[in-house]
Design goal:
The protein has 526 residues and is α/β, with parallel strands linked by helices. It is 36% helix and 17% strand.
Protein backbone atom coordinates (compact mmCIF):
# COMPACT_ATOMS: atom_id res chain seq x y z
CA UNK A 1 0.00 0.00 0.00
CA UNK A 2 2.96 2.20 0.29
CA UNK A 3 5.83 3.18 -1.93
CA UNK A 4 5.96 5.86 -4.62
CA UNK A 5 5.18 4.98 -8.20
CA UNK A 6 8.06 4.49 -10.63
CA UNK A 7 8.65 7.36 -13.02
CA UNK A 8 7.06 7.25 -16.44
CA UNK A 9 9.06 10.16 -17.82
CA UNK A 10 12.51 8.96 -18.94
CA UNK A 11 13.76 12.47 -19.58
CA UNK A 12 12.82 13.64 -16.12
CA UNK A 13 14.48 10.65 -14.48
CA UNK A 14 17.62 11.11 -16.57
CA UNK A 15 17.86 14.72 -15.46
CA UNK A 16 17.43 13.72 -11.83
CA UNK A 17 20.15 11.08 -12.09
CA UNK A 18 22.48 13.50 -13.83
CA UNK A 19 22.14 15.89 -10.90
CA UNK A 20 22.67 12.97 -8.52
CA UNK A 21 25.90 11.84 -10.20
CA UNK A 22 27.26 15.35 -10.25
CA UNK A 23 26.53 15.86 -6.57
CA UNK A 24 28.07 12.54 -5.63
CA UNK A 25 31.49 13.65 -6.87
CA UNK A 26 31.64 16.15 -4.01
CA UNK A 27 31.29 13.45 -1.33
CA UNK A 28 33.79 10.81 -0.41
CA UNK A 29 32.42 7.85 1.56
CA UNK A 30 34.32 6.39 4.49
CA UNK A 31 34.28 2.64 5.21
CA UNK A 32 30.89 1.29 6.24
CA UNK A 33 32.15 0.55 9.75
CA UNK A 34 32.54 4.29 10.34
CA UNK A 35 28.77 4.64 10.19
CA UNK A 36 28.56 2.37 13.23
CA UNK A 37 30.41 5.06 15.22
CA UNK A 38 27.67 7.66 14.67
CA UNK A 39 26.67 9.15 18.03
CA UNK A 40 22.88 9.11 18.28
CA UNK A 41 21.26 11.22 21.02
CA UNK A 42 18.44 8.77 21.74
CA UNK A 43 19.87 5.44 20.69
CA UNK A 44 22.72 3.48 19.18
CA UNK A 45 23.82 1.88 15.94
CA UNK A 46 23.40 -1.89 16.17
CA UNK A 47 25.11 -2.91 12.95
CA UNK A 48 26.67 -1.54 9.79
CA UNK A 49 27.60 -3.84 6.95
CA UNK A 50 28.48 -3.67 3.29
CA UNK A 51 25.93 -5.45 1.12
CA UNK A 52 26.79 -6.51 -2.42
CA UNK A 53 24.62 -5.49 -5.34
CA UNK A 54 21.36 -7.46 -5.37
CA UNK A 55 22.11 -9.16 -2.05
CA UNK A 56 19.45 -7.54 0.17
CA UNK A 57 17.17 -10.40 1.17
CA UNK A 58 13.46 -9.83 0.63
CA UNK A 59 11.41 -10.09 3.84
CA UNK A 60 8.70 -12.71 4.25
CA UNK A 61 5.56 -11.66 2.43
CA UNK A 62 7.32 -9.24 0.09
CA UNK A 63 5.48 -8.55 -3.15
CA UNK A 64 7.00 -9.61 -6.49
CA UNK A 65 7.58 -5.95 -7.29
CA UNK A 66 9.47 -5.40 -4.03
CA UNK A 67 11.52 -8.56 -4.59
CA UNK A 68 12.48 -7.34 -8.05
CA UNK A 69 13.40 -3.91 -6.69
CA UNK A 70 15.64 -5.41 -4.01
CA UNK A 71 17.30 -7.72 -6.51
CA UNK A 72 18.19 -4.71 -8.65
CA UNK A 73 19.82 -2.72 -5.85
CA UNK A 74 23.41 -1.54 -6.20
CA UNK A 75 25.96 -2.12 -3.44
CA UNK A 76 25.18 -0.31 -0.23
CA UNK A 77 26.15 0.22 3.37
CA UNK A 78 23.23 -1.06 5.45
CA UNK A 79 22.95 0.45 8.92
CA UNK A 80 20.55 -0.70 11.65
CA UNK A 81 19.91 1.32 14.79
CA UNK A 82 17.65 1.30 17.82
CA UNK A 83 16.23 4.54 19.19
CA UNK A 84 14.84 5.03 22.71
CA UNK A 85 13.52 8.57 23.19
CA UNK A 86 11.66 7.33 26.30
CA UNK A 87 12.13 4.53 28.79
CA UNK A 88 9.34 2.55 27.10
CA UNK A 89 10.42 3.27 23.52
CA UNK A 90 12.04 0.88 21.08
CA UNK A 91 12.21 2.23 17.53
CA UNK A 92 14.09 0.14 14.98
CA UNK A 93 15.39 1.94 11.92
CA UNK A 94 17.49 1.15 8.90
CA UNK A 95 19.56 3.51 6.79
CA UNK A 96 20.69 2.43 3.34
CA UNK A 97 23.70 4.29 1.97
CA UNK A 98 24.76 3.88 -1.68
CA UNK A 99 28.48 3.16 -1.88
CA UNK A 100 28.71 5.05 -5.16
CA UNK A 101 26.67 7.69 -6.93
CA UNK A 102 25.11 9.30 -3.84
CA UNK A 103 23.20 12.42 -4.88
CA UNK A 104 23.78 14.12 -1.54
CA UNK A 105 20.16 13.71 -0.37
CA UNK A 106 18.17 11.60 2.09
CA UNK A 107 14.66 10.14 1.72
CA UNK A 108 12.64 8.75 4.63
CA UNK A 109 9.65 6.57 3.73
CA UNK A 110 6.47 6.08 5.75
CA UNK A 111 4.56 3.01 6.89
CA UNK A 112 1.19 1.32 6.37
CA UNK A 113 -1.59 0.65 8.89
CA UNK A 114 -0.12 -0.83 12.12
CA UNK A 115 2.52 -2.83 10.29
CA UNK A 116 6.04 -2.66 11.71
CA UNK A 117 7.46 -3.75 8.35
CA UNK A 118 9.87 -1.31 6.81
CA UNK A 119 8.79 -0.15 3.34
CA UNK A 120 11.61 -1.86 1.49
CA UNK A 121 10.04 -1.20 -1.92
CA UNK A 122 10.04 2.56 -1.40
CA UNK A 123 13.52 2.48 0.11
CA UNK A 124 14.84 0.46 -2.83
CA UNK A 125 13.32 2.88 -5.34
CA UNK A 126 14.98 5.82 -3.61
CA UNK A 127 18.37 4.09 -3.34
CA UNK A 128 18.35 3.12 -7.02
CA UNK A 129 18.06 6.80 -7.88
CA UNK A 130 21.02 7.86 -5.76
CA UNK A 131 19.33 8.84 -2.50
CA UNK A 132 20.27 7.56 0.92
CA UNK A 133 17.12 5.80 2.15
CA UNK A 134 15.70 5.26 5.62
CA UNK A 135 12.58 4.09 7.47
CA UNK A 136 11.44 2.82 10.88
CA UNK A 137 9.01 0.33 12.40
CA UNK A 138 7.24 3.29 14.15
CA UNK A 139 8.17 1.93 17.56
CA UNK A 140 6.33 -1.38 17.80
CA UNK A 141 7.14 -4.84 16.56
CA UNK A 142 3.87 -6.69 16.00
CA UNK A 143 1.25 -6.11 13.30
CA UNK A 144 -1.53 -4.99 15.62
CA UNK A 145 -2.65 -2.10 17.80
CA UNK A 146 -1.95 -3.93 21.07
CA UNK A 147 1.04 -1.67 21.71
CA UNK A 148 -1.32 1.24 22.34
CA UNK A 149 -2.71 -0.18 25.60
CA UNK A 150 -0.80 0.76 28.72
CA UNK A 151 2.09 2.19 26.73
CA UNK A 152 1.49 5.91 26.24
CA UNK A 153 5.06 6.50 25.08
CA UNK A 154 4.74 3.84 22.38
CA UNK A 155 1.52 5.51 21.23
CA UNK A 156 3.40 8.80 20.94
CA UNK A 157 6.11 7.04 18.94
CA UNK A 158 3.47 5.63 16.58
CA UNK A 159 1.60 8.91 16.39
CA UNK A 160 4.51 11.09 15.35
CA UNK A 161 7.74 10.76 17.33
CA UNK A 162 9.26 7.73 15.56
CA UNK A 163 9.36 9.53 12.21
CA UNK A 164 11.12 12.52 13.78
CA UNK A 165 13.62 10.40 15.72
CA UNK A 166 14.30 8.45 12.52
CA UNK A 167 15.03 11.66 10.64
CA UNK A 168 17.44 12.95 13.29
CA UNK A 169 19.34 9.67 13.55
CA UNK A 170 19.48 9.05 9.80
CA UNK A 171 21.03 12.46 9.18
CA UNK A 172 23.76 11.73 11.71
CA UNK A 173 24.46 8.32 10.18
CA UNK A 174 24.61 9.84 6.69
CA UNK A 175 27.11 12.45 7.90
CA UNK A 176 29.24 9.80 9.61
CA UNK A 177 29.44 7.66 6.47
CA UNK A 178 29.91 10.34 3.82
CA UNK A 179 31.79 12.84 6.03
CA UNK A 180 29.20 15.34 4.82
CA UNK A 181 25.60 15.92 5.77
CA UNK A 182 22.68 15.52 3.38
CA UNK A 183 22.07 18.68 1.37
CA UNK A 184 18.32 17.94 1.27
CA UNK A 185 16.01 15.64 3.19
CA UNK A 186 12.61 14.44 2.00
CA UNK A 187 9.76 12.37 3.42
CA UNK A 188 7.35 10.28 1.37
CA UNK A 189 4.41 8.15 2.50
CA UNK A 190 0.88 7.01 1.74
CA UNK A 191 -2.00 5.97 4.04
CA UNK A 192 -0.45 5.81 7.53
CA UNK A 193 2.60 7.23 5.80
CA UNK A 194 0.49 10.12 4.55
CA UNK A 195 -0.65 10.83 8.11
CA UNK A 196 2.97 10.68 9.23
CA UNK A 197 3.88 13.12 6.47
CA UNK A 198 1.43 15.77 7.63
CA UNK A 199 2.49 15.20 11.24
CA UNK A 200 6.06 16.02 10.29
CA UNK A 201 5.09 19.25 8.52
CA UNK A 202 2.98 20.25 11.52
CA UNK A 203 5.29 19.31 14.40
CA UNK A 204 8.87 19.28 13.10
CA UNK A 205 9.17 21.90 10.33
CA UNK A 206 12.98 21.64 10.31
CA UNK A 207 13.18 17.88 9.65
CA UNK A 208 12.50 17.90 5.92
CA UNK A 209 12.91 20.27 2.98
CA UNK A 210 10.05 18.59 1.13
CA UNK A 211 7.24 16.18 1.95
CA UNK A 212 4.95 13.93 -0.11
CA UNK A 213 1.71 12.97 1.64
CA UNK A 214 -0.54 10.42 -0.08
CA UNK A 215 -4.08 9.26 0.82
CA UNK A 216 -3.47 10.29 4.44
CA UNK A 217 -5.29 8.82 7.41
CA UNK A 218 -5.40 12.20 9.13
CA UNK A 219 -8.11 12.90 11.70
CA UNK A 220 -7.49 9.31 12.80
CA UNK A 221 -10.19 9.36 15.50
CA UNK A 222 -12.82 10.68 13.09
CA UNK A 223 -11.87 8.46 10.16
CA UNK A 224 -11.84 5.22 12.13
CA UNK A 225 -14.91 6.27 14.09
CA UNK A 226 -16.84 7.05 10.90
CA UNK A 227 -15.99 3.60 9.54
CA UNK A 228 -17.35 1.87 12.63
CA UNK A 229 -20.41 4.13 12.71
CA UNK A 230 -21.29 2.95 9.20
CA UNK A 231 -20.83 -0.69 10.14
CA UNK A 232 -22.94 -0.17 13.25
CA UNK A 233 -25.68 1.29 11.06
CA UNK A 234 -25.59 -1.77 8.80
CA UNK A 235 -25.49 -4.04 11.84
CA UNK A 236 -28.64 -2.33 13.14
CA UNK A 237 -30.22 -2.23 9.67
CA UNK A 238 -29.15 -5.48 7.97
CA UNK A 239 -31.68 -4.89 5.21
CA UNK A 240 -29.34 -2.14 3.94
CA UNK A 241 -26.45 -4.56 3.30
CA UNK A 242 -25.28 -4.44 -0.33
CA UNK A 243 -23.60 -7.40 -2.03
CA UNK A 244 -20.38 -6.97 -4.02
CA UNK A 245 -22.16 -7.65 -7.34
CA UNK A 246 -24.63 -4.89 -6.51
CA UNK A 247 -21.79 -2.55 -5.53
CA UNK A 248 -20.32 -3.18 -8.99
CA UNK A 249 -23.74 -2.45 -10.53
CA UNK A 250 -23.92 0.79 -8.51
CA UNK A 251 -20.39 1.74 -9.58
CA UNK A 252 -21.23 1.15 -13.24
CA UNK A 253 -24.29 3.38 -12.90
CA UNK A 254 -22.18 6.14 -11.36
CA UNK A 255 -19.58 5.89 -14.13
CA UNK A 256 -22.30 5.96 -16.79
CA UNK A 257 -23.75 9.11 -15.23
CA UNK A 258 -20.53 11.05 -14.63
CA UNK A 259 -17.80 9.67 -16.89
CA UNK A 260 -18.57 12.12 -19.68
CA UNK A 261 -18.53 15.27 -17.53
CA UNK A 262 -14.95 15.98 -18.63
CA UNK A 263 -15.80 15.52 -22.31
CA UNK A 264 -14.05 12.14 -22.56
CA UNK A 265 -15.65 8.75 -21.95
CA UNK A 266 -12.85 6.56 -20.66
CA UNK A 267 -14.39 4.73 -17.72
CA UNK A 268 -12.98 7.21 -15.19
CA UNK A 269 -14.55 10.14 -13.36
CA UNK A 270 -12.00 12.91 -13.82
CA UNK A 271 -13.38 15.11 -11.04
CA UNK A 272 -15.57 13.24 -8.52
CA UNK A 273 -16.51 16.53 -6.85
CA UNK A 274 -18.56 17.42 -9.92
CA UNK A 275 -20.49 14.14 -9.93
CA UNK A 276 -23.93 14.49 -8.32
CA UNK A 277 -25.27 10.99 -8.99
CA UNK A 278 -28.22 10.09 -6.76
CA UNK A 279 -28.75 6.34 -6.15
CA UNK A 280 -32.51 6.93 -6.30
CA UNK A 281 -31.97 6.61 -10.07
CA UNK A 282 -31.44 2.87 -9.69
CA UNK A 283 -33.88 2.17 -6.88
CA UNK A 284 -36.05 -0.89 -7.52
CA UNK A 285 -39.44 0.16 -8.86
CA UNK A 286 -41.10 -3.14 -8.14
CA UNK A 287 -39.48 -6.36 -6.88
CA UNK A 288 -35.85 -6.40 -5.81
CA UNK A 289 -33.48 -7.52 -8.55
CA UNK A 290 -29.74 -7.69 -9.36
CA UNK A 291 -29.84 -4.44 -11.33
CA UNK A 292 -31.43 -2.17 -8.73
CA UNK A 293 -31.14 -1.09 -5.09
CA UNK A 294 -33.81 -1.38 -2.44
CA UNK A 295 -35.01 1.70 -0.59
CA UNK A 296 -32.90 0.68 2.44
CA UNK A 297 -29.81 0.30 0.25
CA UNK A 298 -30.40 3.68 -1.39
CA UNK A 299 -30.59 5.24 2.07
CA UNK A 300 -27.24 3.66 3.00
CA UNK A 301 -25.53 4.85 -0.18
CA UNK A 302 -26.78 8.39 0.38
CA UNK A 303 -25.39 8.29 3.92
CA UNK A 304 -22.01 7.20 2.62
CA UNK A 305 -21.86 9.99 0.05
CA UNK A 306 -22.96 12.56 2.64
CA UNK A 307 -20.43 11.49 5.25
CA UNK A 308 -20.77 10.85 8.97
CA UNK A 309 -22.66 13.45 11.01
CA UNK A 310 -23.48 13.72 14.69
CA UNK A 311 -26.95 14.17 16.16
CA UNK A 312 -26.78 17.92 15.54
CA UNK A 313 -25.87 17.49 11.88
CA UNK A 314 -22.23 18.48 12.29
CA UNK A 315 -19.78 16.74 9.97
CA UNK A 316 -17.66 14.19 11.80
CA UNK A 317 -15.88 12.96 8.67
CA UNK A 318 -16.38 13.69 4.94
CA UNK A 319 -18.28 11.33 2.67
CA UNK A 320 -16.95 8.84 0.18
CA UNK A 321 -16.58 10.02 -3.39
CA UNK A 322 -18.76 8.85 -6.23
CA UNK A 323 -16.71 6.34 -8.16
CA UNK A 324 -15.30 4.57 -5.09
CA UNK A 325 -18.14 2.06 -4.72
CA UNK A 326 -16.40 -1.16 -5.78
CA UNK A 327 -14.01 -0.82 -2.83
CA UNK A 328 -16.68 -0.47 -0.16
CA UNK A 329 -17.27 -4.20 0.18
CA UNK A 330 -13.81 -5.04 1.52
CA UNK A 331 -14.04 -3.42 4.94
CA UNK A 332 -17.08 -1.16 5.08
CA UNK A 333 -20.26 -2.81 3.81
CA UNK A 334 -20.55 -5.47 6.48
CA UNK A 335 -22.41 -6.17 9.72
CA UNK A 336 -19.24 -6.86 11.75
CA UNK A 337 -15.99 -4.85 11.48
CA UNK A 338 -12.65 -6.27 10.49
CA UNK A 339 -10.15 -6.60 13.31
CA UNK A 340 -8.00 -3.70 12.07
CA UNK A 341 -10.88 -1.24 11.92
CA UNK A 342 -12.22 -2.31 15.30
CA UNK A 343 -8.83 -2.21 17.03
CA UNK A 344 -7.97 1.16 15.54
CA UNK A 345 -10.86 2.67 17.43
CA UNK A 346 -11.20 0.56 20.58
CA UNK A 347 -7.47 0.14 21.34
CA UNK A 348 -6.06 3.42 20.03
CA UNK A 349 -8.92 5.91 20.11
CA UNK A 350 -10.92 4.59 23.09
CA UNK A 351 -8.00 2.87 24.91
CA UNK A 352 -10.45 0.19 26.02
CA UNK A 353 -10.20 -3.46 24.86
CA UNK A 354 -13.72 -4.13 26.17
CA UNK A 355 -15.34 -1.37 24.13
CA UNK A 356 -17.98 -2.69 21.72
CA UNK A 357 -18.89 -1.00 18.44
CA UNK A 358 -22.54 -1.95 18.95
CA UNK A 359 -22.67 0.47 21.91
CA UNK A 360 -21.03 3.31 20.01
CA UNK A 361 -22.38 6.78 20.73
CA UNK A 362 -21.04 9.21 18.15
CA UNK A 363 -21.79 12.30 20.23
CA UNK A 364 -19.98 10.84 23.23
CA UNK A 365 -17.15 8.70 21.86
CA UNK A 366 -15.64 10.97 19.20
CA UNK A 367 -15.17 13.99 21.52
CA UNK A 368 -13.83 11.72 24.27
CA UNK A 369 -11.27 10.13 21.96
CA UNK A 370 -10.37 13.50 20.46
CA UNK A 371 -9.60 14.81 23.91
CA UNK A 372 -7.51 11.84 25.05
CA UNK A 373 -5.53 10.67 22.01
CA UNK A 374 -6.52 13.08 19.23
CA UNK A 375 -3.52 15.36 19.84
CA UNK A 376 -1.26 12.33 19.34
CA UNK A 377 -2.73 10.52 16.33
CA UNK A 378 -4.98 12.94 14.41
CA UNK A 379 -2.18 14.96 12.74
CA UNK A 380 -4.71 17.50 11.42
CA UNK A 381 -3.26 20.81 12.62
CA UNK A 382 -3.81 23.34 9.82
CA UNK A 383 -0.97 25.64 10.89
CA UNK A 384 1.83 24.82 8.45
CA UNK A 385 3.30 28.33 8.46
CA UNK A 386 6.54 27.36 10.27
CA UNK A 387 7.21 24.66 7.66
CA UNK A 388 6.46 27.05 4.80
CA UNK A 389 8.53 29.83 6.39
CA UNK A 390 11.60 27.59 6.20
CA UNK A 391 10.96 27.09 2.50
CA UNK A 392 9.42 23.65 2.93
CA UNK A 393 7.43 22.24 0.01
CA UNK A 394 4.48 19.90 0.41
CA UNK A 395 2.82 17.73 -2.23
CA UNK A 396 -0.40 16.03 -1.24
CA UNK A 397 -2.14 13.48 -3.42
CA UNK A 398 -5.25 11.37 -3.01
CA UNK A 399 -6.95 8.68 -5.06
CA UNK A 400 -10.21 10.03 -6.41
CA UNK A 401 -11.85 6.64 -5.80
CA UNK A 402 -10.27 5.92 -2.41
CA UNK A 403 -12.85 3.84 -0.49
CA UNK A 404 -11.00 4.13 2.82
CA UNK A 405 -9.67 7.55 3.80
CA UNK A 406 -11.74 9.34 1.08
CA UNK A 407 -10.34 12.04 -1.18
CA UNK A 408 -12.71 14.51 0.43
CA UNK A 409 -10.65 14.41 3.63
CA UNK A 410 -7.62 15.76 1.75
CA UNK A 411 -9.75 18.39 0.03
CA UNK A 412 -11.22 19.56 3.34
CA UNK A 413 -7.78 19.71 4.95
CA UNK A 414 -6.23 21.56 2.01
CA UNK A 415 -9.03 24.13 2.04
CA UNK A 416 -8.60 24.64 5.79
CA UNK A 417 -4.84 25.19 5.39
CA UNK A 418 -5.53 27.62 2.53
CA UNK A 419 -7.98 29.59 4.65
CA UNK A 420 -5.31 29.91 7.34
CA UNK A 421 -2.52 30.75 4.90
CA UNK A 422 -4.00 33.59 2.90
CA UNK A 423 -5.91 31.60 0.29
CA UNK A 424 -5.11 29.04 -2.40
CA UNK A 425 -3.08 31.47 -4.52
CA UNK A 426 -0.71 32.27 -1.66
CA UNK A 427 -0.55 28.60 -0.71
CA UNK A 428 0.34 27.42 -4.22
CA UNK A 429 4.03 28.25 -3.75
CA UNK A 430 4.22 25.97 -0.72
CA UNK A 431 1.55 23.25 -0.89
CA UNK A 432 -0.17 21.60 -3.84
CA UNK A 433 -2.80 18.87 -3.76
CA UNK A 434 -3.28 16.44 -6.65
CA UNK A 435 -6.38 14.26 -6.93
CA UNK A 436 -5.67 11.10 -8.92
CA UNK A 437 -8.81 10.28 -10.96
CA UNK A 438 -10.06 6.73 -10.48
CA UNK A 439 -7.25 5.64 -8.17
CA UNK A 440 -8.13 3.50 -5.12
CA UNK A 441 -6.28 3.74 -1.80
CA UNK A 442 -2.67 4.56 -2.77
CA UNK A 443 -2.61 2.15 -5.73
CA UNK A 444 -4.79 0.62 -8.45
CA UNK A 445 -8.22 1.60 -9.69
CA UNK A 446 -9.89 2.41 -12.98
CA UNK A 447 -7.58 5.23 -13.98
CA UNK A 448 -3.87 5.92 -14.43
CA UNK A 449 -2.06 5.52 -11.12
CA UNK A 450 1.67 5.27 -11.90
CA UNK A 451 3.45 8.53 -11.17
CA UNK A 452 6.61 9.96 -9.62
CA UNK A 453 5.91 12.42 -6.82
CA UNK A 454 9.46 12.31 -5.48
CA UNK A 455 10.98 13.73 -8.67
CA UNK A 456 8.31 16.44 -8.75
CA UNK A 457 9.08 17.34 -5.14
CA UNK A 458 12.85 17.31 -5.63
CA UNK A 459 12.61 19.61 -8.64
CA UNK A 460 10.29 21.95 -6.76
CA UNK A 461 12.68 22.20 -3.82
CA UNK A 462 15.74 22.66 -6.03
CA UNK A 463 14.27 25.10 -8.55
CA UNK A 464 11.60 26.79 -6.37
CA UNK A 465 9.21 26.29 -9.29
CA UNK A 466 6.02 24.47 -8.26
CA UNK A 467 4.78 21.61 -10.44
CA UNK A 468 2.05 22.84 -12.78
CA UNK A 469 1.19 19.22 -13.54
CA UNK A 470 2.62 15.77 -12.84
CA UNK A 471 2.64 12.96 -15.46
CA UNK A 472 0.60 9.88 -14.63
CA UNK A 473 0.30 6.64 -16.59
CA UNK A 474 -2.01 3.65 -16.79
CA UNK A 475 0.19 0.54 -16.99
CA UNK A 476 -1.25 -2.80 -18.10
CA UNK A 477 0.85 -5.93 -18.38
CA UNK A 478 3.98 -3.83 -18.15
CA UNK A 479 2.93 -1.54 -21.02
CA UNK A 480 1.81 2.09 -20.86
CA UNK A 481 -1.79 2.18 -22.07
CA UNK A 482 -2.64 5.79 -21.26
CA UNK A 483 -0.98 8.97 -20.00
CA UNK A 484 -2.56 12.06 -18.48
CA UNK A 485 -1.50 15.10 -16.51
CA UNK A 486 -2.32 15.25 -12.82
CA UNK A 487 -3.45 18.76 -12.06
CA UNK A 488 -3.17 20.78 -8.85
CA UNK A 489 -6.49 21.17 -7.06
CA UNK A 490 -8.92 22.68 -7.95
CA UNK A 491 -7.82 22.20 -11.57
CA UNK A 492 -8.47 19.05 -13.55
CA UNK A 493 -7.27 17.60 -16.85
CA UNK A 494 -9.38 18.97 -19.72
CA UNK A 495 -9.40 17.51 -23.22
CA UNK A 496 -8.31 19.95 -25.91
CA UNK A 497 -10.95 18.57 -28.26
CA UNK A 498 -8.72 16.76 -30.70
CA UNK A 499 -6.07 14.09 -30.64
CA UNK A 500 -5.77 10.71 -28.98
CA UNK A 501 -7.46 10.78 -25.57
CA UNK A 502 -4.91 8.27 -24.27
CA UNK A 503 -2.07 10.77 -24.68
CA UNK A 504 -1.30 13.46 -22.09
CA UNK A 505 -0.31 16.10 -24.62
CA UNK A 506 -3.93 16.38 -25.71
CA UNK A 507 -5.03 17.66 -22.30
CA UNK A 508 -4.42 20.80 -20.28
CA UNK A 509 -4.93 21.70 -16.62
CA UNK A 510 -7.72 24.14 -15.92
CA UNK A 511 -10.93 24.80 -14.07
CA UNK A 512 -13.79 22.86 -15.68
CA UNK A 513 -15.98 25.26 -17.61
CA UNK A 514 -13.61 28.18 -17.12
CA UNK A 515 -12.44 28.23 -20.72
CA UNK A 516 -9.94 31.09 -20.75
CA UNK A 517 -6.90 31.22 -18.55
CA UNK A 518 -6.29 27.49 -18.21
CA UNK A 519 -2.70 26.34 -18.24
CA UNK A 520 -1.68 23.78 -20.89
CA UNK A 521 -0.45 20.71 -19.08
CA UNK A 522 2.34 20.13 -21.56
CA UNK A 523 4.07 23.32 -20.40
CA UNK A 524 4.09 22.22 -16.79
CA UNK A 525 4.91 18.55 -17.18
CA UNK A 526 8.17 17.28 -15.72
Amino acid sequence: MLGLKSTMQAAGLAATLAIALGAAQAHAATPCEEAAKAALPDGKVVSAELVDAGAVMAPTGATPADKAALAALPALCRVSAQLKPSADSLINIEVWLPTAGWNGKLVESGNGAFSPALPYGAMAAALQRGYAATASDTGHQDNSANFALGHPEKLIDFGYRAVHENAVAAKLIVAAYYTAGASKAYFQGCSTGGRQAYGEAQRYPADFDGIVAGDPGIRFVHQTGAELWTIKYIHDHPESLISKPKLKMLHDAVIAACDGLDGVKDGVIENPLRCKFDPIAIQCRHAEGPDCLTQAQVTLVRRLYAGTKDSKGRQVFPGLTRGSEVGWGNALIRTEPLEYGLDAFRLVAMQNPDWQFTSMDLDRDIPAADASVGPIVNNDDTNLKPFFARGGKLIGYHGGADPMTTAMSSVVYYQAVAARSGGSKALSNHYRLFLVPGMFHCVGGDGPSTFDMLSALDQWVETRTPPRSIPVALVRDGQVARTRPLCPFPQQAIYKGKGNTDQAQNFYCGIAGAGQGATPASKGAH
